[in-house]
Amino acid sequence: MEKSVVSSGDEDPTCRSVMEGIASNTHRVLTEEEENRLKKQDETVVSEFKRSKLEAEAQKNWDLFYKRNDTRFFRDRHWTTREFELLVGIDGDTKKTLLEIGCGVGNFLFPLLEENANLYIYGCDFSPRAVEFVKGDLRFNEERMKVFVCDITKDRLEDNIPELVDVVSLIFVLSAIHPDKFQQALHSASAILKPGGVLVFRDYGLYDMAQLRFGRGNKIGDNFYVRQDGTRSYFFSVERLTNLVADAGFDVSSCHYVNRRTVNKKEGVDEPRVFVQGKFIKR
After folding, report:
1. Which residues does 119 contact at the CB level (< 8 Å), separation at least 6?
2. Segment 209-235, tens digit of pLDDT
3. pTM to 2 decimals?
4. Which residue, 123, 156, 127, 151, is CA-closest to 139?
5. How far apart are CA 202 and CA 200, in angstroms?
């Protein structure tokens, strides 16, 4: 296993500190107690009616999420350039283009622009409210970015982006989409990339603490859950992700679990976090 240094996480705004992560190709081994938690989730699963309702109201639920949380929920993602060496080296003499799918309120977009003078970023999000927050940010610069509302499972990115881009990022985005639509989303990402372009990916990994916390009535399907606010989350295995991207026309440059621990000594919390991280090359 190789070490992968990870800073404090924007994925969980309640955490106080995060211990260094370890990259691994195998999922974490569950304790007997954790296995029992997962078994209890199967006792009461979401009804077919509610599943259909959640899918129909997916955009509304994310828009309400941003209405409640404004721009305060996630921290700016300065860790991204450290984690993906590709992005550190994107600055140079020639213009580079990046599409951030699921730009939210700009936590990844704005720090990256600050660190890369010759980078132009396109950003899209499912939530109209999130896009408006980006446009209303004092750092928003029309000369260096364009943001728009898009459902990547059915809308054409080409309608808003007049060129093929060098890099596409999918960071904590695919997990929020219904698994039946993963392929449509990945094909959309591939269609807007230059041949040889790179897809950078990070999302929730199998047996992350967030998956184990779900109780009865939250499970929609295999590794797929609904939160109290109606937003959904899928937890990826390395095997599932590599198969998905291969079917969408990508070669795997790297793909692994990042295992780390969230520690809050004041509240007596010491919990495992698991993410899946990868770089994939368009054929």
Report:
1. 90, 91, 95, 96, 97, 98, 112, 113, 144
2. 999 999 999 999 999 999 998 999 999
3. 0.86
4. 123
5. 7
